Amino acid sequence: MNAIRKPRRSVQAPSSVVMIRPHSFRSNPETSEDNAFQKQGGEDTDGRIAKAAYKEVTAAAETLSQHGVTTHIFEDEGQATPDSVFPNNWFSTHPGGHVALYPMAMKNRRLERRSDVLELLKQHYRVQDIIDYSGLEADGMFLEGTGAMVLDHVDRVAYAARSKRTDPVALERFCTHFNYEPMVFDALDATGVAIYHTNVLMCIATDFALIGLDSISNRARRDEIVDRLSRSGREVMTLTHEQVANFAGNAIELQGADNRILALSSRASASLTDKQKAIIEQSCTLVPLEVPTIELAGGSVRCMLAGVHLVSR
């Protein structure tokens, strides 16, 4: 009887993540204009929503840790940063010891940048440099990290849906510095509204990709994206508008102790077909996380996890 081989480690799947545990979570009124995934709740006089979000982040971190993913958790006790639970928008890390800081479209989201996160990275990982793009905010140019971009670390492509949060010039600067090829496209939801972040419709793992192809309005560009992902050896799975609305694209591949996992919300997992799950499970273990309160803010599991692509000290 042949032994089951462990999937090889992949540059696409980090083994460590940064998470922010919010104490005053709520929907962000500044981001509701262009985030159609966001749901406005009623008045939360007793803080039930904030308490539920706190518990969801805590439970998600514990589950990831049980699967062998290193989780660095920071507390956000302030009142001015309602979206702090989504740190992947303000920084990213890259092999070779590189860290990028990003220009954020909404003023209260700029307050999420915190030096203690960067100091932890320097303490535990080899950080060679920090490239800070936040100065572009003064020029009205925004690029909200790995929300605005979905990065193929293997084939060196930065996929980006055009929006007010993804400026093509800022994207070009990032790609020049970090050696990625930009692949910009337009993406609309089922009602014709532009999708605000690329990572709600697209997930790239080592051996497969999940993408809301029906959202990409230009057919030639859509075919080009499928061809590019397929040529890298990945199985490309199409997500319906309904699956995208259920955050099926907002997933992330991580390296666990024994194998790679796909972290996504329970809602997202439930929306996948049996065939899609079977393809994913050929190389990853599905790890659904209960985050219904967090999803009220218009983001899900991928947004909650800032992957650490750095070498440990």
TrEMBL record:
Per the record, a Pfam family? DDAH_eukar
Composition bias, kind Polar residues: at what positions?
25-38
Q: Which InterPro entries match?
A: Amdntrnsf_FN0238 (IPR014541)
| Annotated spans, Disordered | 21-45
Residues in the signal sequence = none
Q: What is this protein called?
A: Amidinotransferase
